[in-house]
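testing teh design pipeline on a random one, pls ignore if ur not involved
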């Protein structure tokens, strides 16, 4: 798979996981899952993610934890919370930003946005190891002496 394909796939996975996060949140609070309700809840976090995707250069290294995953996670939460406060969303008993929501959102989005990258990188490394073991070794190949050829070299984009 090319870096460009991984870039698009990573974007789709991130967006789907942010929408899943909002669906879980709306469901846990007994809110309707109408499209307008889902959009109202999701767009602040999607805006944060979009800013992160552009600023971290995620399309070039979509599976990297730093800066891609961490920047996507932090800006998704930070910008999402800022927009929610600015638009009056989520006010509980006069508190525009309940700390419990900040904690839950930070943890869940961190697990989602970093977790799938960890799984993908681990799977790609396992595939690369398996391919290296099954490929016949060429003694005169200078790549065999290159310490930079880690299990994910050539397979994991942006490593």
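output:
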């Amino acid at each position: 798979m090319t870096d460009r394909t991984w870039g698009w796939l990573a974007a789709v996975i991130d967006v789907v996981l942010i929408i899943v996060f909002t669906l879980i949140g709306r469901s846990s609070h007994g809110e309707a899952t109408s499209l307008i309700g889902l959009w109202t809840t999701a767009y602040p976090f999607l805006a944060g993610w979009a800013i992160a995707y552009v600023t971290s250069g995620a399309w070039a290294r979509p599976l990297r934890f730093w800066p891609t995953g961490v920047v996507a996670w932090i800006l998704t939460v930070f910008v999402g919370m800022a927009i929610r406060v600015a638009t009056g969303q989520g006010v509980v008993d006069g508190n525009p930003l309940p700390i419990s929501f900040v904690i839950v959102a930070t943890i869940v989005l961190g697990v989602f946005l970093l977790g799938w990258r960890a799984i993908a990188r681990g799977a790609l490394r396992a595939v690369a190891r398996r391919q290296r073991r099954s490929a016949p070794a060429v003694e005169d190949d200078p790549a065999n002496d290159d310490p930079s050829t880690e299990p994910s070299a050539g397979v994991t984009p942006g490593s």
